Input
Amino acid sequence: MAEMSLPLVVRRDDFRLTDDESSFPSSVSDYLASACTHERVAQAEPLGFDSALWQSLTQMGVVEAAQASDGDPVSGLLQGALIAETCGQLTAPVPYAEAVAVARLLGTTNGPGAAGLRLDVISGRAVVGLASGSQLAGWPQLVASGAIASGVLGLLGGDLVLLRQDERVPQVPVQGNLPTAWWGPEMSSVTRLLTGDNAQAAFARARSEYMVLTASALAGLGAASLDQAAAFARDRTTKGVPIGALQGVSHPLAECKVAVEGARRTARKAAWFCEHEPVADPKLPAVAFIAAARAADRACRTAMHVNGGMGVMADSESARYLLRSKSWAAVVARIPDVQLELANVLRSPRYQEVVYPSML
Amino acid sequence: MDFGAVDLDENATALLARVRKVLDEALGDSDDWPVRDRESSPSNLHRALGEEGLIAPRWPVLDGGADAGALGDRLVSEELERRQIYISHTPVMLAQTVNKYLRDEPLKQRIVRGIAAGQVRICLGYSEPDGGSDIANVRTRAIRDGDEWVINGAKVFTSVAHLSQYIFLLTRTNTDVPKHRGLTMFIVPLDLPGFELQPLITIGRDRLNITYMRDVRVADEYRLGDIDSGWAVLQDPLNTEHGIGDLNDAGLGDIHGQGKLSTVPASLMLGRIIRWGARRDPQTGQAPLDQPLIAAAIANAAVDLEIARNSSGPMGKVAASEAYARMAADLIEAVGIAGLVSQGHEDALEGGVLDWAHRRSQATTIAGGTTEVFKNILAESGLGLPRQLPVGRRSE
Output
């Protein structure tokens, strides 16, 4: 067999977090659990942005922690993924995934003003969005943080550009209360930050990272929705038994748990590879994004169904999750675009010759 | 977290060379993966691996292993996996139980050494014709007669029984107590008079068996644990089978337990179909992957497989077995009837991998505990839901 002569790579499959890795995300989680209450999330609607909460989080260093750092082995995209999970779990009305991806992207360019803008994004002084639609999507785009942003990064004619507007761009209301707004080159000032292949590679990497962080947020959202439904299913009785003791209820929830936890772990793994070996397994960001989008959708719908009539009430907890489950994914990319990108990655010989099954 | 490549030192490289040599000699260099499956995994291969200490690589050399740690286990597994050979972990797993519960020292040594040497294979005698997933609902009777036990009954779907030397047998020894309390475990030599194996052939072309026992007389030394305490003896093997416990081994272990039975063949299937999809038609210059809907189907399969690979324990079993069967079905949709040309025919697409996988994947949601058993475990331990409602207990 020809494949026998190929070099051997054995990789660890170690998903356990070290204390150093879990320490800061845990403290963010503790903070959000007390600060980001259901009421506070509701008060941030319909804009979908809590400026004071974002100031507190950025001052804690949530964006900084997800930046690559030579001096600190822990900081990087995995920290971002873990913090994004927490933001998703508590439906925090802050542009976390976008800010991390944007700050990391700004760190790859010496373009005019990029370094200062990066520091402003990290410290929360500025919000900059990412126009993440694929090249198929064209302009203008609905940008997730478009209505609160002073600038947007995107790919224009193959160049990485910073779009700027002096006035706030009006929000376009979407399901789930994201601060979305239309951005396009014709209504902005345009600064070129990178050109040519460098621009496309840097943008593609940022878009992948945005997908990974969004996958983590969606996994957190889906898990929270399942936890709520499970708590309801423990207490709610029918014909004298808790509905959670019925397999017609418990098995769909268990299946969603499998999907959500699989997506969570895959997003963490994708984050690890983005940070440490970005070319080793390039299918992972797309896989994590598609899987998490579907897992969150399924979990939130199943959880709502388990809640019965209570679930479809406008102010129910399950509604809070379900109404975010689709828009959080859709604002980042269209799934068919990501599927085609993934299929193109899979064409590479590495995925055809299954040297070691564990690498596919 | 760590997904980094492991440095292979001299010992690891030497071990790898040994594994490859044994496998090449036992199997030749033919690429005949479709006919290799766990039931037909040949006895000569087991013995050849055993002679090199590779059946139980992490056991001490004195016990017949290779003292090669978790990395040794992993290297042997990967070499077997890429050749699509499944060596049952059951005997090595049961060695712990044998060591703990068998009282007769020479017998214990014979079995455990035989396991390491690849000369002892053990099949699991749990399921019964009337059984289903409630394995404590056992009718196979063991009745004491002096220093012996007389066993009557039948076990079904016993894989590897026709290649095994022993059966790990769950019997009923007491009918006057609640069902979990009247069970006793034995490890019974299959060459005793009274055993009869009847083959059952699956749609995946595996051989399973019905194992009949008619007045099988076995000495009391073959009993594992106390009389009527079989349920306790069974717990460690069952937990291992269900993927409960620490599987990590610093990132070198099989994190998704039983899931590998699905993800390994599913990896082969997907790789072959990607290869098919990327190949351009010499006339038109077009490849199937140029068609967006085929590209999407293949992308979906890759998502399914990666998620399954990253799922651990009971989740690994559910994610992987369901993904495997779904991937086979979905990829057949994308490829069309050419994908179902029978294995072995010269026109078979990519060696008939879809015919093979579609057949073989069906059993993976059933064997080793149905996915429903695992979903019960997840509902209780993962979501904190109450135990499933026992049949017949209703408030009405």
About this structure: Chain B has three domains: 10-87, 122-228, 257-381. The beta strands of chain B are 122-125, 141-145, 148-155, 166-172, 183-189, 195-201, 207-219, 223-224. The first helix of chain B runs from residue 10 to 27. Residues 122-228 of chain B form a domain with the Butyryl-CoA Dehydrogenase, subunit A; domain 2 fold (CATH 2.40.110.10).
